[in-house]
UniProtKB/TrEMBL annotation:
GO terms for cellular component: membrane. Belongs to the TerC family. The chain crosses the membrane at residues 6-23, 35-53, 69-88, 95-118, 124-142, 183-210, 216-237, 244-264, 290-309. It comes from the Bacteria. Keywords: Membrane, Transmembrane, Transmembrane helix. NCBIfam families: R_switched_Alx (TIGR03718). It comes from Bifidobacterium leontopitheci. It is a multi-pass membrane protein. Its main location: membrane. This is Tellurium resistance protein. It is found in: Membrane.
Length: 320
């Protein structure tokens, strides 16, 4: 297990602070090669888990990885809007993403530790997780999470009132000097915005992954592999994200399915006195791990294919 964490952290450091540290806009070829490498590594890792721990943990890993990866793609919508809103220069966007993804990993690690501890002591929390995911799924379908416009949160607005912030970037610096006066650059606001957004992302992703597996090791490794290569995915899909019109529907189906699964698990292990007299509900069926993987693959795959078909149809209509 220690060796696994060392390798994953090495991957993460190389991805973000060796390859990703060079300020440039990656080519399509570079993006594809980078993403393909980490996808293959995730598949190999899952195969190793299967070999040494059995099929169930491996299927849980694949299910968790696909779910987290899909959520990460959806989160790129917001990253694109943030970069555009704050006019982050193209050459600096890789650096901003490096910091944002690092913050995301740290936050998810903290949420995983807290979530695992809570689940072990209070199984009824599955009711809350399940309800949250179902509500999130409904909002995705209904368009409740409108990503077409970004609105600054209260923290950012308050910060602008108490510190001096320039309107221009000074490379990667957080502070700069103008006429002998020290100012913060917009980079500070961008980092805070990315960080606070990452917290909201964690609220979606952590309950979803705990709905597929209770093993903190599988939960953490699924999240790490989902974040690896996210920089290159941002540049590769940046121009196409608004064309993946059915991705939110696919994600909503996955989150809704996991939410229902969590509620069912909570009922089967129920200890709340006002539900079935504090006894487990015996008639609730158990959802097998392989079925979760099938549902995730079919839902996300169908959404992606449907989006591509619609994109081609629109392009063909415009070319006439």
């Amino acid at each position: 297990m220690i060796a696994t964490f060392v390798v994953l952290i090495a991957f993460f450091i190389v991805d973000l602070f060796v390859i990703g540290r060079k300020p440039h806009v990656p080519s399509t070829k570079e993006c594809v090669q980078h993403i393909a490498f980490f996808v293959v590594m995730a598949l190999i890792f899952g195969a190793l888990v299967w070999t040494f721990a059995g099929s169930k943990p491996a299927i849980e890993f694949y299910s968790g990885w696909l779910t987290e990866y899909s959520l990460s793609i959806d989160n790129l919508f917001v990253f694109v809007i943030i970069m555009s809103n704050f006019a982050v220069p193209k050459m600096l966007q890789k650096y901003v993403l490096s910091v944002g993804i690092t913050v995301a990993l740290i936050l998810r690690g903290c949420f995983i530790l807290v979530g695992a501890a809570i689940i072990q002591r209070f199984t009824w929390v599955f009711f809350l997780f399940g309800a949250f995911l179902i509500v999130t799924a409904i909002k995705l379908v209904a368009g409740g999470d409108d990503d077409e416009e970004y609105h600054e949160n209260g923290l950012i607005r308050a910060l602008r009132k108490v510190i001096r912030i320039t309107d221009e970037y000074d490379g990667e610096r957080l502070r700069t000097e103008r006429d002998g006066v020290r100012y913060f650059t917009p980079m500070l606001i961008v980092f805070l915005t990315i960080g606070t957004t990452d917290v909201m992302f964690a609220f979606d992703s952590i309950p979803a992954i705990f709905g597929l597996t209770k093993d903190p090791f599988i939960v953490f490794t699924s999240n790490v592999f989902a974040l690896l290569g996210l920089q290159q995915l941002y540049f590769l899909l940046g121009a196409l994200l608004d064309k993946l019109v059915y991705l939110p529907v696919g994600l909503a189906f996955v989150l809704g399915f996991i939410g229902v699964k969590l509620v069912m698990e909570a009922l089967s292990g129920n200890s709340l006195p006002f539900i079935n007299g504090g006894r487990p509900v015996e008639w609730v069926p158990e959802v097998p791990t392989w079925l979760s993987l099938v549902v995730i693959v079919v839902a996300i795959g169908s959404a992606a294919i449907a989006s591509v078909v619609k994109m081609k149809a629109v392009e063909a209509k415009q070319s006439k």
